[in-house]
């Protein structure tokens, strides 16, 4: 089950964190992979090396998703290396903490552009190949904030909700074409973005108390559900939202 030999996957934001865990899990199942990040070439190359050590092909692509031309430029980098992907995992995201009365245009534009609009643009670049070959998997990484928004992340949570609406919309439009579109929504997971705040013992305790299972997850906890949704065996699953959060959304 879940064998992916010969498939090609692009995972955005895969030089570290949850994206890296997803990329390595797909590579372990035999998928060739594109590592993507903004500009940190050493960490992208190191991740690609880890994937190659599993016997698959791996290339790095770069692009700042706040730039309106990034999706097209990533597409050009893929066309000139291993070709267009069969699997697209939209994982990269940017998060700004701000109280409701301090949110400005720049906060809004940056988060909506990176966390929502770039997803539409990357689908515009990648989905035509999937639709043409009548096989494709698109997995969007959402957040438990779709259900439990953090008071200081109104725009980020809104962008994740917007992505979920896009998932439902496109899953209907692509239904019957062999291309599925699903959402995986992590809860609190140990990655670079929250290392600093989780060092405060009081905040850590509060976070753990908010999770019914009582502990914070690891990036690998998010990788297995994505592998499942990208597999041949998940051909009949589309338009879903799958929380990976120890029950926090309840
Ligand atoms: P992370 O450690 O903060 O890494 C973010 C990734 O996104 C990096 O690879 C980063 O690339 C990339 N990225 C950020 N801004 C970018 C931009 N402008 N252009 C291109 N790439 C950009 O993130 P994470 O914690 O692993 O989160 C991964 C996904 O899970 C995100 O969608 C996040 O919203 C979601 N999530 C995470 C948690 C959690 O607790 N960690 C909880 C719920 C949902 P660079 O290295 O180049 O900056």
Strand-helix topology:
Layout: E1 8-11, H1 17-28, E2 32-37, H2 41-52, E3 58-62, H3 70-79, E4 87-90, H4 105-133, E5 136-141, H5 154-174, E6 179-186, H6 192-195, H7 201-209, H8 219-230, E7 241-244
Parallel strand pairs: 1-2, 1-4, 2-3, 4-5, 5-6, 6-7
The structure holds NADP nicotinamide-adenine-dinucleotide phosphate.
NADP nicotinamide-adenine-dinucleotide phosphate is lined by residues 13, 15-19, 37-40, 64-66, 91-94, 114, 141, 143-144, 186, 188-189, 191-194.
Summarize the structure.
The chain has about 250 residues and is α/β, with parallel strands linked by helices. The protein has helices at about 15-30, 40-50, 70-80, 105-135, 155-175, 190-195, 200-210, 220-230, and strands at about 10, 30-35, 60, 85-90, 135-140, 180-185, 240-245.
Keywords:
250 residues; seven-stranded parallel β-sheet; 8 helices; globular; binds NADP nicotinamide-adenine-dinucleotide phosphate
Summarize the structure in words.
The protein has 250 residues and is of the alpha/beta class. The protein contains 8 helices and 7 strands. Helices cover 44% and strands 15% of the residues. The chain has a 7-stranded parallel sheet, with helices on both faces. Helix 2 links the parallel strand 2 and strand 3. Helix 1 runs parallel beside helix 2 and helix 1 crosses helix 8. The chain starts with 7 loop residues before the first strand and ends in a 6-residue tail after the last strand. The protein binds NADP nicotinamide-adenine-dinucleotide phosphate. NADP nicotinamide-adenine-dinucleotide phosphate binds next to helix 1 and helix 6.
């Amino acid at each position: 089950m879940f064998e992916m030999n010969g498939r090609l996957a692009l995972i955005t934001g895969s030089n570290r964190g949850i994206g890296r865990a997803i990329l390595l899990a797909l590579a372990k199942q035999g998928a060739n992979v594109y590592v993507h990040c903004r500009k940190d070439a050493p960490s992208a190359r190191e991740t690609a090396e880890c994937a190659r050590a599993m016997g698959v092909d791996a290339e790095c692509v770069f692009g700042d998703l706040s730039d309106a031309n990034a999706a097209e430029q990533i597409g050009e980098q893929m066309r000139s290396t291993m070709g267009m992907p069969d699997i697209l995992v939209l994982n990269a995201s940017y998060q700004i903490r701000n109280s409701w009365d301090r949110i400005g245009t720049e906060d809004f534009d940056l988060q909506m552009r990176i966390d929502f609009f770039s997803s539409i643009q990357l689908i515009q670049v990648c989905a035509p190949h999937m639709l043409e070959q009548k096989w494709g998997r698109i997995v969007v990484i959402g957040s438990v904030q779709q259900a439990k928004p953090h008071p200081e992340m109104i725009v980020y949570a809104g962008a994740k909700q917007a992505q979920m609406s896009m998932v439902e919309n496109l899953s209907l439009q692509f239904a019957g074409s062999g291309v599925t579109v699903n959402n995986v929504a992590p809860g609190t997971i140990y990655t670079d973005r929250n290392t600093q705040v989780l060092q405060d013992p009081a905040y850590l305790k509060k976070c753990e108390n908010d999770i019914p299972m009582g502990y914070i997850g690891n990036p690998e906890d998010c990788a297995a559900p994505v592998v499942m949704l990208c597999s041949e065996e998940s051909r009949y699953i589309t338009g879903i939202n799958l929380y990976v959060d120890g029950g926090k959304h309840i």
